[in-house]
Design a protein that fits this description.
The structure holds two protein chains of two kinds.
Chain A: E1 12-17, H1 26-35, E2 59-67, E3 74-82, H2 90-93, E4 100-102, E5 109-111, H3 121-125, E6 132-134, E7 139-141, H4 147-150, H5 163-167, E8 173-177, H6 184-192, E9 208-210, H7 233-246
Parallel strand pairs in A: 1-9
Antiparallel strand pairs in A: 1-8, 2-3, 4-5, 6-7
Chain B: H1 5-31, H2 37-60, H3 79-102, H4 108-134, H5 147-169, H6 177-201, H7 208-212, E1 218-222, H8 230-235, H9 244-264, H10 271-292
Helix pairs in contact in B: 1-2, 1-4, 1-5, 1-10, 2-3, 3-4, 4-5, 5-6, 5-10, 6-9, 9-10
Classes of the chains: A alpha+beta, B mainly alpha.
Chain lengths: 248, 307
């Protein structure tokens, strides 16, 4: 199974807008909530009431600060990171058991929890930190692109989307077929200059990131200086009030 | 990379075991049956014992050891799977070789071919182990042309050192093994020196800018979680870097000691036992550094500017 499909009929994936993401963690928590009862269930944490709570999460939101080139201004960028469902993922080919595989029909990269031996080699091969080890289950866990939602006919059609996409309050996450150049997500990538993470490594990620838009001109920090007086009666009255109130 | 003791134990123990097996097979293919039954049986038990301990230890670090047999299935793409297959295939040939070489089963004509096959399979197994690391593009210090040769010569040098110690214990002349041990040791030292030079010189051309796509002036201000997650625990291990140069020095001093002890063993054979144990310590130091110095690309997302 780990031999990669030559091509996939679809390239399902996410487009993440770094301009509108506000770092609210709604995608991360809804991901955890859905997947702890779905395909990846359970997704249990260790030491939840102790000093060192940790456990597998399939989506993590980093915070980066980007300074502009003249060093005068900076912005915070919230950066969700999850599996990018690469076209040529090394995590799949290094897997010794075939538990890790890429689906020929839609390109989703999945782990079969019944055949994974928990050797962790796939996590070593992934440059994006997309795979986490589940200590309680003894297997690796990763983003499934909510494979148990997107084809779920018990759901209304508008709900057949990954949990993270449904949860995002700012519409910063988009789901669709990136193999179809007419799809909404492909158009979005084209319009906004969507990019790959670590493109030089050659794994051809399916997920794309949209760059933050250029900032509009913003006033420099600091309070504006008081305007110079024009010598009018009103101006002298204010000056007097200012003096009296300042106590001198 | 987090130096898991089970993996260090596996690679060092099985390396010595396969190295010994390779040399026994090679020697026997030209010399023939072992003159001493005790030497043959002890050597085979120790070689296969070390290999088995190593394999069991690497199996124990799995989340599901009972599913380990599944790892034999993906030899078409996975070096880890190939390692498993090579290890399993080596066993029956090694056992058949041991039976004939020791004389437990008399088949003098079979010793040479079985010895050569066992020797070849042993080296192939070590080669696949090295390949698991050398093919990981995410870890610059491992994705090096010298990674595999270092693994091979480590196996040969530690196997030869063990062979010398066993020869001494059974009061047998070390024969051709003494020069082989020294040559393997010197080659190993040279390869490891070149390897460390190569990883220090290799460009750290993966950047936080490329990982995040946010340009050169990006820095981390918030990690996504309150305590370390799996990725940081497994891939973000940095403890040893501070001591790296001192540990490298220690490694070469230990190799020098092994070499000197092996030379002294020409006069007092039992000293070669001390040489072997010094070799084991050197192997542990080197393997620990190999892991600890393996800087993973994923650390770029956690504030590391270059990897």
């Amino acid at each position: 199974m780990p031999a990669l499909p030559q091509t996939t009929a679809k390239k399902l994936g996410l487009v993440i807008d770094l301009d509108t993401c506000v770092g609210c963690q709604a995608c991360a928590t809804s991901c955890k909530e859905w997947n702890t009862q779905g395909y990846s269930a359970p997704l249990a944490d260790e030491d939840t009431r102790g000093p060192d709570p940790h456990g597998p999460w399939l989506n993590r939101i980093h915070g980066y600060e980007v300074e502009d080139t003249n060093g005068k201004d900076s912005r915070d960028v919230h950066f969700p990171r999850s599996c990018l469902h690469c076209e040529t993922p090394a995590c799949v080919t290094v897997c010794p058991t075939g538990a890790s595989y890429k689906r020929a029909e839609d390109g989703i990269v999945l782990i079969n929890p019944d055949t994974c031996i928990g050797c962790k080699l796939c996590s070593w091969a992934c440059p994006y930190g997309a795979r986490e080890y589940d200590v309680q289950e003894g297997v690796m866990k990763k983003c499934t692109l909510c494979v148990d939602r997107i084809y779920n006919e018990n759901f209304e059609p508008e709900d057949r989307q990954p949990a993270c996409v449904k949860a995002c309050p700012t519409g910063a996450r988009h789901f669709g077929d990136l193999g179809d150049e007419n799809s909404a997500v492909s158009q979005l990538v084209k319009e906004r200059g969507g990019f790959d993470l670590l493109p030089e490594m050659g794994y051809k990620p399916t997920n794309k990131y949209l760059p933050p838009r250029a900032k509009r001109d913003t006033p420099q920090a600091g309070i504006e200086a008081l305007p110079k007086g024009d010598g009018s009666a009103m101006d002298r009255l204010f000056k007097l009030a200012d003096r009296l109130l300042s106590g001198n | 990379m987090n130096p898991a003791y089970s993996v260090i134990l596996f690679t060092t123990a099985s390396g010595a075991g396969y190295g010994l097996l390779a040399l026994l097979g090679l020697t026997a293919s030209s010399v023939g049956q072992s003159p001493s039954l005790g030497f043959a049986i002890t050597s085979m038990v120790i070689a296969l014992g070390l290999i088995t301990i190593g394999l069991l230890s690497s199996t124990m670090h799995l989340g599901h050891p009972e599913r380990a047999w599944r790892a034999l299935s993906q030899w078409k793409t996975s070096w880890l799977s190939r390692e498993g297959v090579a290890a399993v295939v080596t066993y029956p040939f090694a056992l058949a070789f041991g039976m004939t070489w020791s004389g437990l089963y008399s088949a003098p004509d079979a010793i040479a071919p079985l010895g050569l096959i066992t020797s070849g399979l042993s080296l192939i197994t070590v080669f696949t182990t090295g390949k698991i690391y050398a093919t990981l593009k995410t870890i610059r210090a491992w994705h090096q042309p010298l990674t595999v040769p270092v693994y091979l010569f480590f196996a040969l040098a530690s196997g030869a050192s063990l062979h010398l110690a066993l020869s001494a214990l059974f009061a047998r002349a070390p024969g051709a093994i003494a020069p082989v041990a020294l040559i393997a040791l010197v080659t190993l030292a040279l390869l490891k020196f070149l390897y460390w030079h190569a990883i220090d010189a290799a460009p750290r051309d993966h950047t936080m800018a490329n990982a995040t796509g946010l340009g050169a002036n990006v820095r981390q201000w918030e990690v996504p979680h309150t305590t370390k997650n799996f990725v940081q625990r497994e891939m973000g291990f940095v403890v040893a870097r501070r001591h790296a140069s001192r540990l490298r020095g220690l490694f070469f001093v230990l190799l020098l000691c092994v070499g000197l002890l092996e030379l002294f063993a020409t006069f007092i054979p039992l000293i070669s036992i001390a040489a072997f144990f010094t070799m084991l310590i050197a192997a542990w130091v080197e393997r620990w550094l190999f892991f600890a110095q393996g800087e993973h690309v994923v650390t770029l997302f956690y504030g590391n500017p270059q990897a």
